[in-house]
Amino acid sequence: MTRKDLTMTMTPRTLALVACLLAACGGTKDAPPAGDTPPAAPAGPAPTGKVIDIQMITDGTSNRFEPAEIEAHPGDVLRFTLQVGVHNVHFLADSNPGIPDLPAASDMLQLPGQTHDVIVNFPAGKTIYFQCDPHALLGMIGHVKVEAGS
Fold first, then answer.
1. For a Cys staple, 49 with which of 15, 75, 102, 143, CB 3.0–4.6 Å?
2. Counting Cβ atoms within 10 Å, is residue 116 exposed (0-12), middle (13-18) or buried (19+)?
3. How deeply is 99 buried, as exposed, middle or buried, from its count of CB atoms within 10 A (0-12, 13-18, 19+)?
4. Which residues pair with 116 in a beta bridge?
5. For the segment 101-139, what is each residue's pLDDT rounded down to a tens digit?
6. Predicted structure pTM score
7. Model confidence over 54-103: pLDDT tens digits?
8. How many CB atoms are located within 10 Å of the residue 150 CB?
């Protein structure tokens, strides 16, 4: 059977499915490979301070942020780094009443070494609370005290 014979025996529905599959697999040879476009910069102010690393850990007895109590200044970056487990970080509005523009909950980090950065853009003098959604009831909570100045 030739290619022409095969094409002639396909129904319009089958042809549409093949076209969709080809488009999903890269389409034409002229299309740039996936991943060549750099990701867009995050919205909000640019970081101006230091990077504070917060480990996200699961061990035989607990799920935790380490450290769980942080002091930071506006412009600092909170870098949540997954060590072990599957975790996210979420600054809930009901835990932080009156704090505007809280960051959205992060995606679940699943591979060791994955990070999620949060620029400290909170009012000075406030304590901002965060948690790992699936492990909050197990004690995986923390807070950042925002100090004035740098």
1. 75
2. buried
3. middle
4. 80
5. 999 999 999 999 999 999 999 999 999 999 999 999 999
6. 0.68
7. 999 999 889 999 999 999 999 999 999 999 999 999 999 999 999 999 99
8. 10
